[in-house]
Amino acid sequence: MSIFVDQPAAALPDSPLTLENVAKVLEADTKVKVAGVDIDGVLRGKIISKKKFLSVAKDGFGFCSVIFGWDMHDQTYFRELKISNSENGYRDIVAKIDLSSFRRIPWEDNMPFFLVSFYDPDTDDRLSACSRGLLARMMEEVEKQGYGAMAGGMLQSSRDYRAEYQESVLKLT
Q: Rounded to an integer, what distance in angstroms lies between the CA atom of residue 37 and that of residue 68?
């Protein structure tokens, strides 16, 4: 099975997901996967019961700050951050669920999936170490100035296709 499977029409709701309709959309599910992006761009998350998910969908839940204190090999960084360090016991930060990120994971029995963003538990401000929070803050600044932003992806390759093409043409002549 390819991992690039389009979402079946029935798997996604017809209207935007809200706190009012999320329970209905997840009616047949028993568990939900949630994940946030760590400092290296790796998704770190957990599978929680649907009951737990519904109870934290509004205000978020505690998530260990070590997500910003270790590398992709689960080794703590030599230089610790203020928000994530052994001195503060890698205290919990708040993970808030982004209902608009809802997807189903086809290779995991169509398990529901949501992204989270991370917030400071004392101030409820977005954490600068959270890439989603940083992007949201930057977009707010851009919009305050009356602008918008668009982004696109670009694939690069180190292969020299022009040289390969020229070589293949020379072989034909």
A: 9
The CATH homologous superfamily to which domain 12-148 belongs is: Glutamine synthetase, N-terminal domain (3.10.20.70)
* Out of 44-58, 65-79, 80-94, 156-170, least confident range: 156-170
**Strand pairing class (61-64; 92-105):** antiparallel
For the beta carbon of residue 96, count every other beta carbon within 10 angstroms.
22
Taking the whole predicted model, whether its pTM rises above 0.85 is answered as no
Give the burial class of 9: count Cβ atoms within 10 A of its Cβ; 0-12 exposed, 13-18 middle, 19 or more buried: exposed
Kindly report, residue by residue over 1-51, the tens digit of the pLDDT.
Answer: 334 445 554 456 678 899 999 999 999 999 999 999 988 889 999 999 999
